[in-house]
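[job 0417] fold request received: High-affinity branched-chain amino acid ABC transporter ATP-binding protein
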Amino acid sequence: MPATPLEVDNLSAGYGPTRVLENVSFAVPAGARLAILGRNGMGKTTLLATLAGQTRRYDGRIRLGSADLTAMASSARARQGLGYVPQARCIFPTLTVEENLFVGLKGRPKASLEEAYAMFPRLKERRRNLGGQLSGGEQQMLSTARTILGRPSVLLLDEPLEGLAPIICEELMAAFSELTKTGDMTILLVEQRIQSALDFADQVIILERGRLAWTGTPEALSMDHAAVERLLGVGGLH
Ligand SMILES: Nc1ncnc2c1ncn2[C@@H]1O[C@H](COP(=O)(O)OP(=O)(O)OP(=O)(O)O)[C@@H](O)[C@H]1O
Ligand SMILES: [Mg+2]
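[job 0417] inference complete; emitting structure tokens
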């Protein structure tokens, strides 16, 4: 599926009676790389989960290309091209790597697994290992690869680097960049590793208590020391 523009308009959402997101609006063109930043508990995961249709929406609209996702169930959104890799990597520990990948094929031929292996050759080496035997980095590769096999036009990544060694982080970020290189995929990346996110992104939004508090380019954010300190709680970026 080719990359698709995503448009979020006045979105308010939460869990049951708990309102978390308030009036969030932003638009990303096809092929964009958007970093979603903010301190702990500010609503980043809730935003991705809301796009994926897994929270309670109170107000607002979500459009993906010409499709209005707003009233669609999660499964229908996935069929429209929305790929969600949640923060919990959700792999099956007692299935092999290859069996875990079968889940992502959704009726596509088995040969399509090579797409996943081309992206992460390490998964091919470990294809007969159980999911539960993988390192954190390999689990993240598996979880991402399984979603990619569904050929999403927009990929939502929630803290893919969490708990991983720097060398593995570099490998993952290189793979994500590769996905957007041909312009075939739009990526929304939630990350606490701010510098990695900014090196990757071409646009940034920052959430503060469920509201959009800052929007701009990574370059503009690097120069906005006050915003970095207030909204991200770090002294500065290099
Ligand atoms: N299932 C839930 N039910 C009720 N409230 C929730 C639920 N999940 C999250 N929240 C609340 O929603 C707010 C935003 O949480 P969210 O997980 O979206 O933040 P986050 O920015 O992803 O944080 P982190 O950086 O720690 O991952 C928090 O106040 C949190 O306590
Ligand atoms: Mg989160």
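[job 0417] notes: The CA atoms of residues 25 and 100 lie 35 Å apart. The radius of gyration is 17 Å.
[job 0417] exit 0
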